[in-house]
Amino acid sequence: MKEALERIRVAEEKNEAAKKSQEADLAQLRTEKERALASLVEDLRTKRGQLHADEEQKLQQALTDEKNSLVQEAQAERQSFQALYEERHETLVNEIIERVTSTYGS
C-alpha cells in the first residue's frame, strides 16, 4: 500500500511537472503568436498606408496632367483668339481706311 501511495505521489508530481511545462510552452506559444499577429497588423498598416500614398500620388499626377492639359488648351485658345483678333483688326482697319479714302479721297 505504501508503495502504491508512493507511485501515486510520483505520478502526481510528474503530472504537475508536465502541466507546468505545458503551461510554459503554451505561454511561450501565445507570446509568439501575439508577436506574429502584431507584426502582421503592422505590416498591413504599412501596406495600407503605402496603398493610400500610391493612390494619392496617382490622383495628384492625374490632377497635374489635367491642369497641364487645360493650361495648354487655354494657351492654344488664347493664341487662336489673338490671331483671329489681329486678322479681324487688320481687316477692320483696312475697311475703315478704304471708307475714309473713298469718302474723303486720298
UniProtKB/TrEMBL annotation:
<protein>
    <submittedName>
        <fullName>Uncharacterized protein</fullName>
    </submittedName>
</protein>
<feature type="coiled-coil region">
    <location>
        <begin position="1"/>
        <end position="73"/>
    </location>
</feature>
<keyword id="KW-0175">Coiled coil</keyword>
